């Protein structure tokens, strides 16, 4: 009986350990600017900001956000697919005067095109794909990455060799939720308690290499 009890305890600990190593899940209430990448590459952006309803009502803010998205979609030459969609605009629960504008993008290219637009953020970029495709898109591969578990550095040249592994690259300050387990991150990025990656304090581009 004691052996059975020990085995059950070990199995329970294994399940807890495995659950803790999974991908980060977006919380029900998002109160900080966040980006989530879906398994199919779809991007969701929660833009969180202070809201002064002396200037706009929430419904007016929602209308302005949707008008901005519509203008952006129609301004794209020879591209008929919807590049950005405003999913919702709402007050953040227990967030004081914070409001969330939630955007949906079919992929990283549309996301980068939108957040890099002068009328929006101006210079920000977001990439999600293989490390090999990142290099093909002009991203530097000679970067320092450290293991999120033991802080050891990824050996020089290994990122280029990991051409089939998924990689997130961005210079936008946000909590980043990836569609898989994170293995390595670049300097300045940190891991939140929920497993998401915090890029707010990083300078320049943040690299997140998935397992």
Characteristic terms for this protein:
about 210 residues, alpha+beta, 7-stranded mixed sheet, 5-stranded antiparallel sheet, 5 helices, about 25% helix
Concise description?
The chain has 211 residues and is an alpha+beta fold. The chain has helices spanning 2-20, 58-75, 108-115, 131-136, 158-161; strands at residues 34-37, 43-50, 85-91, 98-105, 126-130, 145-147, 166-170, 175-177, 182-186, 190-191, 197-198, 206-210.
Q: How would you describe what is shown here?
A:
There is one protein chain. The N terminus is likely disordered. Helices cover 26% and strands 27% of the residues. A hairpin with a 5-residue loop joins strand 1 and strand 2. The chain starts with a helix and ends with a strand. It has a seven-stranded mixed β-sheet with strand order 3-4-2-1-8-11-10. It is an alpha+beta fold.
Q: What is the gyration radius calculated from CA atoms?
A: 20 Å
Number of helices: 5
Strand order of the biggest β-sheet: 3-4-2-1-8-11-10
Q: State which percent range the strand residues make up.
A: 25-35%
Enumerate the spans where pLDDT stays under 50 for 5 or more consecutive residues: 1-21
Report the sheet with the most strands, covering strand number, pairing sense and barrel closure: 7 strands, mixed
Q: How does the helix and strand content classify structurally? A: alpha+beta
From N to C, what is the helix and strand string? HEEHEEHEHEHEEEEEE
The rough form would be described as globular
The CA-CA distance between the termini, in Å, is: 39 Å
Mean pLDDT: 86
DSSP helix fraction: 25-40%
Number of strands: 12
């Amino acid at each position: 009986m004691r052996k059975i009890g020990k085995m059950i305890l070990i199995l329970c600990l294994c399940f807890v350990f495995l659950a803790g190593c999974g991908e980060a899940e977006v919380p029900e209430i998002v109160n900080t600017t966040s980006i989530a990448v879906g398994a199919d590459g779809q991007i969701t952006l929660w833009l969180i900001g202070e809201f002064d309803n002396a200037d706009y009502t929430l419904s007016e803010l929602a209308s302005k956000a949707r008008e901005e998205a519509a203008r952006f979609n129609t301004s794209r030459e020879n591209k008929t697919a919807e590049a950005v969609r405003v999913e919702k605009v709402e007050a953040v629960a227990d967030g004081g005067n914070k409001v969330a504008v939630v955007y949906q993008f079919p992929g990283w290219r549309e996301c980068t095109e939108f957040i890099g637009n002068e009328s929006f953020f101006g210079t920000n970029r977001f990439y999600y794909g293989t490390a090999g495709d990142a290099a093909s898109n002009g991203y530097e591969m000679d970067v320092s990455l450290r293991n999120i578990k033991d802080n050891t550095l990824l050996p020089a040249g290994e990122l280029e060799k990991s051409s089939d592994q998924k990689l997130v690259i961005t210079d936008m300050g946000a909590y980043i939720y990836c569609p898989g387990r994170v293995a390595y991150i670049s300097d300045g990025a940190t891991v939140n308690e929920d497993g998401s990656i915090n890029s707010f304090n990083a300078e320049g581009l943040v690299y997140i290499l998935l397992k």
